[in-house]
Design goal:
Blueprint lengths: L6 H28 L14 H16 L6 H10 L34 H8 L9 H4 L5 E5 L11 H4 L4 E5 L8 H4 L5 E4 L16 E4 L4 H11 L6 H4 L17 E3 L2 H11 L19 H12 L2 E5 L31 H13 L3 E3 L14
Parallel strand pairs: 1-2, 1-6, 2-3, 3-4, 4-5, 6-7
InterPro entries: Glyco_trans_29, Glycosyltransferase_29, GT29-like_sf, Sialyl_trans
EC number: 2.4.3.9
GO biological process, one term: lipid metabolic process
């Protein structure tokens, strides 16, 4: 007599096969969209030494001036009024049952249908705020260091190291680029695919701030916290290789409050709310960089940026300071509206709420030509 497998087993197997196929198709499509011609690094624009000196002098003036308590929050409140939450918690806290608002939307704008996964994760994380050494400072200065090629040759490293909080994004490296970007990292803010693969880009006392976009992101960060290996089949659902280990203690790991993402996207940038699309989002997700600027406004009294500015009119210029991708690579992505973001950052800088130390968005230190 032949043994029959339960129909539930077949259904479960079929379901997993379908998910894997969809995952592989998604990875393939995303990789195609990001494919672009590599830039010829020998053709990088020459950086005028006088321009670099003006940038360095401007950055040093910013860090040497008297710090102004609550300056950026007051400016954001004045500019955006009720759209900006003055008292928003930067990171997710354990008392999530009292925070109904974070469960209204799906990731990255909220944690709808992820309360159990989130609770399990938070049980592993003992802290949810800045370290006491930073909290106790009466006035804190943040600088968000972007990945832009505009940083090449400016030699802002020394000035950037003087800020109280230095926020770095995704896998943007420090090793080998310290003259231009410094070597101090207070916060590394990223999503799983963006996390540095090299253990040398993590610092013992630096915070690792995770931005969660999808279900497997919860599994990945939990595996990192517990120092476990993520199953091979689960790795198929990431659009590129993710780190296998993160040398950061659980007490230094934070989960970005999705209300920061929601506030940035729907309230400040005025993007449409999530719409159901088969291939993800439709340019209503802010870049990690802009999320970090809004996060910095909640963490610090003063905020500066460096390494920001996508000039899409110059497709053959370097996109990043650390690789040979061209600016044209941004034309293939469908998640971010970099034009709207540039206008937002220009507004902050022209209103003198935020300082641009590298001049990629708006240059206050550039020599004006008649």
């Amino acid at each position: 007599m032949k043994m029959k497998r339960p129909s539930g087993f077949l259904k479960g197997t079929f379901k997993h096969v379908i998910l894997v196929v969809i995952g592989l198709c998604f990875v393939y499509m995303v990789k195609l969209s990001f494919h672009s011609k590599e830039c010829d690094m020998a053709r990088i624009h020459y950086v005028n030494p006088e321009h670099a000196k003006r940038a360095q002098k401007y950055a040093e003036q910013v860090v040497q001036a008297e710090c102004r308590p609550s300056f950026v929050k007051k400016g954001m409140g004045r500019l955006f009024m009720e759209k900006y939450s003055m008292n928003a918690s930067p990171f997710v806290r354990r008392d999530i049952k009292t925070q109904e608002a974070i469960f209204k939307y799906k990731p990255p704008f909220g944690f709808h249908k992820f309360s159990e996964k989130l609770q399990d994760l938070l049980e592993l994380l003992p802290e949810y705020d800045l370290p006491e050494s930073l909290q106790s400072k009466p006035c804190k200065r943040c600088v968000v260091v972007g990945s832009g090629g505009v940083l090449n040759g400016l030699q802002l490293g020394y000035a950037l190291n003087q800020f109280d909080i230095v926020i770095r994004l995704n896998n943007a490296p420090v090793q080998g680029y310290t003259d231009d970007v410094g070597n101090k990292t207070t916060i590394r803010m990223t999503y799983p695919e963006g996390a540095p693969l090299s253990e040398h880009e993590y610092y013992p006392n630096g915070l690792f701030v995770a931005v969660l976009f999808k279900s497997v992101d919860f599994d990945w960060i939990q595996a990192m916290v517990k120092n476990e290996t993520l199953p091979l089949w689960m790795r198929l659902f990431f659009w590129k290789q993710v780190a296998e280990k993160i040398p950061v203690l659980p007490k230094h790991i934070r989960i970005l409050n999705p209300l920061i993402v929601k506030e940035t996207a729907f309230d400040i940038l005025e993007y449409p709310e999530p719409r159901a699309t088969f291939w993800g989002w439709d340019k209503n997700v802010p870049t990690i960089g802009v999320m970090a600027v809004v996060l910095a406004s909640h963490l610090c009294d003063e905020v500066s940026i460096a390494g920001f500015g996508y000039d899409l009119s110059q497709p053959n210029t370097p996109l990043h300071y650390f690789d040979n991708l061209c600016m044209a690579a941004m034309n293939g992505q469908r998640m971010h509206n970099v034009t709207t973001e540039a206008k937002f950052l220009q507004k902050l800088i022209k209103e003198r709420i935020v300082r641009d130390l590298s001049g990629g968005i708006h240059c206050d230190f550039c020599r004006k030509t008649s």
